[in-house]
């Protein structure tokens, strides 16, 4: 049976670490100018219900580096779930392409896409989760710290799709995850419950960002208003006052703390420009690692689905 990557929990602990190893090897190949055409002449259909910079460029560039080609299908090209049934889109695209990557609003559409596809499906984001982002984030921490276990990662902001993926990761690999968010902005309750029930990570939700930041190894944030929430912007900006990563908040973390942001950043809202451009920031290492982590996920899926690839 084919394997997809719809959530971090689709991979075991051993597979996640193997993905990191492969990502680092692929990254070294790129830096050395060494080609790795593991998917020569293959095509990836990229379905975008939401626009993106990093997701599109990283997957499209990654496919070129693999010797393949990616097709961009924007919101007006498909209108997934509106103009045509999701299952029909999935079955048709599978006849043309070797891979499907989708960046959607509804997670239910992602699940249906994978159910009816005969080729691997990779989740490039839904309103529920963002597994490719977390793989890149944790790869970045792994590169800078030599480990992800025992790290205190403090997410300052909304309990959104990225936060849900941090919780999914916490149910597979042990680390200390803290969400600092105002009342009413907690993560998906079922995901939170499952992560706590796994019993391998320390998980906290607090309302005081200063208390959360104390002794943090990593301070992480995301925009306060995600795509599709624009009508809530004024309320959210008001509710998140005091939840900004700035130099003062950073002073409560460890002296060598890393600062991360999945981008795009709204400067002087969730993070200050001085911090994102400062010595603690690994934001652009993290952005670069989207491509390397995603390519490694593809290799892992291909090997799981029977491909003969050795890295």
Number of domains: 2
CATH 2nd-level architecture of the largest domain: 3-Layer(aba) Sandwich
Structural class: alpha/beta
Alpha-carbon Rg, integer: 19 Å
With strands numbered from the N-terminus, the spatial order across the biggest sheet is 7-6-5-8-9
Report, as a whole number of angstroms, the end-to-end distance: 23 Å
Helix content: 40-55%
- Strand percentage lies at 5-15%
Average of per-residue pLDDT values: 96
Using the alpha-carbon principal axes, give the shape.
Answer: globular
Order of helices and strands: HEHEHHEHEHEHEHEHEHHEHH
| Low-confidence blocks of residues | none
The total count of helices amounts to 13
Number of strands: 9
Which superfamily, in CATH terms, is the homologous superfamily of the largest domain?
Aspartate/ornithine carbamoyltransferase
CATH class of the largest domain: Alpha Beta
CATH topology of the largest domain: Rossmann fold
**Quick one: biggest sheet?**
5 strands, parallel
Description of the molecule:
Helix 1 crosses helix 13. A five-stranded parallel beta sheet has the order 7-6-5-8-9. A four-stranded parallel beta sheet has the order 2-1-3-4, sandwiched between helices. The protein is built from 13 helices and nine strands. The protein has 311 residues and is of the alpha/beta class. The chain folds into two domains: 139 residues, Rossmann fold (3-Layer(aba) Sandwich); 155 residues, Aspartate/ornithine carbamoyltransferase (Rossmann fold, 3-Layer(aba) Sandwich).
